[in-house]
Amino acid sequence: MRSGVLYGAWDVYQALRLLRPDVVHIHGRLQAVAPAALYRQAFNPQARVVITFHTMPHVRDYLEVPSGNGGEYAGPRKVAARFLLANCDRVTAVSHSIVHSLRHDVRLPIGNYDVVRAGSEHEPVDSSRVEAARALWPCAGRTPILSTVGVLSWDWKVAGHKLCMEALPHVKATFSQVQLLVAGDGRYRQYLQAVIEAHGLQNDVRLLGNVDDVPALLNVTDLYVHMGLNEGSPHAIIEAMAAGKPIVAARAAGIPEIVEDGKTGLLVEPDPRSVADGVLRLLSDRPLARRLAQAAYAYARSHLTWRRVALDCIRIYRSRKSDASEK
């Protein structure tokens, strides 16, 4: 699609006109509702228009460096968003927290909605992939290995990575050989590099950049840590659950909707000392870590699969606008 709102909308409309779908499912981009509604009116009155919100609205900055976001739904954008939402047959989101924030922080009129979380499948990782991962990210025999996954383009994800780094010196006091692997890349990479240098963690933290084989990364991980501060339903956590890894995550935004404290992981307050305490607890209590990891794996296998996502989407495509399952 070409860049720009008008060009992009025209491209979407032309594609719909040629494909003649029965369902138009939009992911996050409200402006795509306009060509979908126009297509429905002109070519297929029975077509369903569904929108899914994947991320929390950005309502504040999370770093010392301003993001310059300005809010996705400020001023005229909010008026346009209200109009476009009225043309959707169903509204879905990957967590209740997203809808709550859209309703109360942004004041969008979202009525009935469904929650459809992302899915994952356990993927066995053979030894060749593990060795390739270790070659790409040499850890020099250090243990334990912590990992966290999140693009470095969103300030709330980067703020979470920063918390993990600030917690590391407290963990090192007990586990001197601990290492943190950070997967993801983006415009805040230099910011995090400065954090590493400020805390003297050059030998303890590795910024891996974008990682193609996340299952292999999780395979070499002893403990997965996720401190995103404005997450809707982080897929990285779901992948760690499906990989059967013990998890320490922030008690923030939508994370508690997928991680149950003390049952499928540990939830901690988003501050360095609390993060370190949670990490130390699981690194020191291996039976507890194993129990939480097994429970997380079982939950992912039963509730967070792509088959379940597909079945939920089919149900939503067939539902009426007034239905409200909120599953």
What is the fold named in CATH at topology level of the largest domain?
A: Rossmann fold
Give the full name of the CATH homologous superfamily of the largest domain.
Answer: Glycogen Phosphorylase B
Largest sheet: 6 strands, parallel
Structural shape: globular
In sequence order, what are the helices and strands, one letter per element?
HEHEHEHEHEHEHEHEHEEHHH
Unreliable stretches covering 5 or more consecutive residues: none
Cα(first) to Cα(last) distance is 33 Å
Q: Count the DSSP helices.
A: 12
Return the domain count: 2
CATH A-level architecture of the largest domain: 3-Layer(aba) Sandwich
Q: Proportion of β residues?
A: 5-15%
Structural Rg:
21 Å
Q: How many β strands by DSSP?
A: 10
Structural features, described:
43% of the residues lie in helices and 13% in strands. The protein contains twelve helices and ten strands. α3 links the parallel β2 (48-53) and β3 (90-93). The mean pLDDT is 92. It has 327 residues and is of the alpha/beta class. The strands form two sheets. A six-stranded parallel β-sheet has the order 7-6-5-8-9-10, with helices on both faces. It has helices spanning 5-19, 33-42, 76-85, 96-104, 127-136, 155-172, 189-198, 214-219, 235-242, 272-284, 286-303, 306-318, and strands at residues 23-27, 48-53, 90-93, 114-115, 145-149, 179-183, 205-209, 223-226, 247-250, 266-268. It is globular, with a radius of gyration of 21 Å. The two termini are 33 Å apart. It folds into two domains: 5-119 and 306-318, Rossmann fold (3-Layer(aba) Sandwich), CATH 3.40.50.2000; 127-303, Glycogen Phosphorylase B (Rossmann fold, 3-Layer(aba) Sandwich). α1 runs parallel beside α2 (33-42) and α6 (155-172) crosses α10 (272-284).
